[in-house]
Amino acid sequence: MARKQSLAKPLTGPDNLPQQTLVVDNGAHTIKAGFSSTSFDDSEPKPEDCQVIANCIARSTRDKRTYVGPELLDECWDFGELAFRRPVEKGFVVNWEGEKAIWERSFVDERAKLKCNPHETNLVLTESPNAPAALQRNADEMVFEEFEFASYYRTTAPTLNSYGPSPFPSTSDSAPGVPLGCLLVVDVGHSHTTITPLYHGRPFHSACRRLEIGGKTLTNRMKEVLSRTVEVQKEDWIVQEIKEDVGFISQSFSSDLERVWKGGLKDPREIDTSIVVDYVLPDYEAVKRGFARPHDPTISRKQRALGLDGGPREHIVTIGNERFTVPELLFTPSDIGMQQAGLPGTILQSIYSLPENLWQLFLANILVVGGSSKFAGFTERLESELRSRVSEDYIVRVAQAKDPLKNVWLGGARLAQNEAVLKEHVVTRQEYLEHGDLWTRRRFAGKVGR
Amino acid sequence: MATGPLRFRTPHIEELPITQSRQAPGFAWVAVAAPPEDPAKNWGTANRKRARANVGGQTETQKEALSARQQREVERKIKELNSDNSKDVQIPIPKKEGGGGGAARAGKTTNTKKILASGKTFAHYLDDEEAEIARTGRRDGEAEVVPVAIQQQRASKTPYARRKAREESSMSASPVPTTGGSAPMRAGDPMEIDAGEDGDADASMPSAAEIETLLNLPPLTYNQARSAPPPSNAPPPRRFCEVCGYFGRAKCMKCGAMTCSVMCKDTHDEQRCLKFYA
């Protein structure tokens, strides 16, 4: 049908799409972007083809410089007291002024690694699920009227996962552009965690759920609890590194907490030093990057900071239960008083809102992606909690993507290799100018054919 | 059931209706109407400590006000934890080298000019959309789709407009989607029953048509997609020591924060308990 119409109106059909496609997974924390092309059909997109760009404008109080987007990771070497401005709020691009500056620096500027001519490039752009329509319109207008990409496909980020490589060893990878059959995507992002059941690459919209705990919640929480001992309220970047370096998901929360308790006033107990670590904070002179080492109770933190005890002068923060009580929020949001079910509960809310005979399909095909799912023990804990909550008759299978950060991008890149599938999804600039923004939005929602 | 109020607040003691008018020997709860309080007569014989505690904020309404205040405090804190940008910092976008940035930044068309100059935050967009739904009963961009859905779910005789209004009233709180309340779920409900009853022929999968219907449901709004609170029979929230992060075992009488040991309690009293007058 689509073919017939495009024959009737040859001007509107995407008959001559450019070969090159820019795939942009526009995350709140980092943009994952890279090129894909219909011309290299046989070569699999690799994670190395994907650039990770900080999606922020950062201002350093030390060298009084403002870093825009990719400059932060490429040129900044002192991450102390960085202040951030993020154009993406709650997972959606809200401040296009900032986002435009970052995009221009990343894709248009002469220094950009991913420099391209938008007129000869297709764009695949991701957004968070359940977006307010006004924000979708803003994105469409900016892409076509400001950047003037040749054609454009906007979709929710979890959807692209079903075009990615298969996470389960028993299923072989599908051909580029062919979605996996059934997938429940758990996307643990920077702003929040979303649950999306996908059926052949299409989401069950009524079962999408969102848990409002994400990487930034954990970083902010870590900042708060570490500030009990060391003042780190201004050190977003360093605390984020601490969280990534030492954080883990406890498999048995209360016993781990018991092990690192110092005890009461006259309690002779020893704390378990296998969990407690000393984290050496970077000073960006001698120590360029913070690192953890086993806890040494003989070191006095204050003396070491002044260089009085003979050892190297360094700032240490001792981290005990913070290592796992902070990531624990993903599983128990009630620990900070949040009135939302934890991750396993939210997944089950999503699954139980579907017809009963679909439950097994999704319970056995859970895919975990997103940067905050990289905590050690995440998949194991999720699987065991789900296991204990559903009937024994169901098979529960949880897999983490090989590259949780770039899996969405890989999916998008694989989709963009298949010209037929790409044509089916995109809206060309000509179509946009002809039919307007409402039509474009409904087309991306799958409501109108071409 | 007894007419007067029982003085016990234990939820597990249930008073069974008694058919006999006269009690057999044994045990039964009897409601006793409290004698009317006469403050003139009460000058020392009653429990003064309890009376004082009653004055100091332990009536039902006062307790509610207190918990509402705590709830607001918790919400403020969560909002802070979920904030995206650095606090109290304005970071302007640096001017491009070689000038000419000013005109380019303003946007190429009227639409993009408007978008780029907009100072709206996400909360504004969300409120706009909620207001739009409350006013028109549908989301922008679903002009012709929603009426079809209404046709399908016309089995319920509630006028659509009224039903929608009722739903929106609970929009701000997170809804429990499985119990209905959102339009998409209603449309899905009859199908679920079908699948359960005559799904024997193909118990493993719903039919392609059913799946197609499900896939075509419109997306939930931002607020509808939020995870629902845990069920009421879930364990109560854990409280942690404010000083060291271990399980909180004692509550500060002044500010309500939890501590785990005498040592932490001392630290709390010295450094953290900011509330000097309770």
UniProtKB/TrEMBL annotation, chain A:
Locations listed in the record: Cytoplasm
A GO CC term assigned to this protein in UniProt: cytoplasm
Superkingdom: Eukaryota
InterPro entries from the UniProt entry: Actin (IPR004000), ATPase_NBD (IPR043129)
Alphabetically ordered keywords of this record: Cytoplasm
SUPFAM superfamilies, per the entry: Actin-like ATPase domain
Region of interest: Disordered: 1-20
Quaternary assembly: Component of the SWR1 chromatin remodeling complex.
Function: Component of the SWR1 complex which mediates the ATP-dependent exchange of histone H2A for the H2A variant HZT1 leading to transcriptional regulation of selected genes by chromatin remodeling. Involved in chromosome stability.
PANTHER family linked: ACTIN
Similarity field: Belongs to the actin family. ARP6 subfamily.
Protein name: Actin-like protein ARP6
Source organism: Saxophila tyrrhenica
Gene of this entry: ARP6
From TrEMBL, chain B:
Entry keyword set: Metal-binding, Zinc, Zinc-finger
A UniProt-annotated Pfam family: zf-HIT
Listed transmembrane segments: none
Biased composition, class Basic and acidic residues, residue ranges: 70-87
This protein's record includes keyword Iron: no
Compositionally biased spans, kind Polar residues: 170-181
Biased composition regions of type Acidic residues, renumbered to the chain: 191-201
Gene Ontology process terms (BP): chromatin remodeling
GO CC, one annotated term: nucleus
Residues annotated as domain HIT-type: 241-273
Any GO molecular function: zinc ion binding
Residue span of region Disordered: 37-110, 136-207
PANTHER family according to UniProt: ZINC FINGER HIT DOMAIN CONTAINING PROTEIN 1
Protein name: HIT-type domain-containing protein
Species annotation: Saxophila tyrrhenica
Lineage of the species this protein comes from: Eukaryota, Fungi, Dikarya, Ascomycota, Pezizomycotina
